[in-house]
Amino acid sequence: MTQIDVLVLGGAGVDTIVRVPELPLPYADSYMVPAITTRAGQTGDGVALALAALGHRVHHLDVLGDDPEGDLVRALHTETGVPLTTVTQHSGTKRAVNLVDPGGRRLSLYDISRGDQDAKFPDDLLVDLVRRSRHVHVTITHPCAATLPLLTASDVTVSTDLHNWDGSQDYHRQFAAAADVVFVSADVLQDVPATLREIAAMGRPQVVVATNGAAGAWQLIDEQILPIPPVAPDRAVVDSNGAGDAFAAGYLHGWLAGEQPDTCGRLGAAAGAHCCTVPATEVAPITAAELLEMVRP
Question: Residue 100's pLDDT is what?
Fold first, then answer.
């Protein structure tokens, strides 16, 4: 029976990258832009590939369409050697359009039509994969909410990323309550310390991290809110696509190894910074050796 270090649930999809002169983009009838590229790799793909590059045995499970976009995702996993198990989703593969400005900032437009309500992971498949896994990273994409009761009842540790949760939607709250490690973006949070404490008060979360882009992050450990200083990128910043997923993978790399929270935070910040130096059209997650080099004093 093949053992799995990290099972990633959900978040497989395709992004179309459009480089724009500025964000927000003023209205105009048309813009001349550089090459528009469609490539595989949404949040679950990003975390799965990043953890695999750091040396973990990873398996990815999600619903995909029987379409050219799904073929791109399957090809990405084949090329990188990250095992992928899929269930057919008749409405097609998850898609988004990402507008990226010259400074690397991103605005994402998600196609919400890609989510069959009847598409789900077979119980026997899910139970088998969870049983063989040490840790599960569950994304907030459909149909992952249905996996939360099983994950809560299992012995595996769980992480999740709430992305740009504003602290109010119950849909995101259920993921936070089922996880040991919770990541959330600080972008739209009105009160970061209060939100971190609210998540911790749900009972299960041991670590709660709010990422804040180039400014670093904060984490709540044992009722203390500790800053995570930013790590300087090792090259010029070109694209922030996937930086949050890289941060989560770097942090989990340390957390799964039993590292202290400040070390986990530095690893996450370094992985996120490195990701911003790689165009979204390339697949080049940071390796364990490169990560250690970035955080070396």
Answer: 87
